[in-house]
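Why do we care about 3D structure at all? Because function follows from shape, and shape follows, mostly, from sequence. That is the central idea of this module. The next example makes it concrete: a single protein chain, its amino acid sequence, and then its structure expressed as tokens.
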Amino acid sequence: MNIPDEWYVVRYAACRVVDGAIRLCGHEHGTIADAMGCVVPDGGSFISRVEFGSTTSLSEKELIDFLKALRDAPWASRWNSLGAV
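And the structure:
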């Protein structure tokens, strides 16, 4: 089956584990950095790749992008001021 390139769009979603179930933020973000705005900084959130409506793990390159985005997350300045970086 050939899928036209314009149909193949990778998006990202912030996820949380709530009552044993994975919950998505409800948005389809175009970048990992954008999805960081929906991450709750309590250690229970993560970013998933969304392809064709299904969530998958991040690739190695995407994981590196995630780690870089952690430094610039909206709530990161609080941790940076504590010397956590």
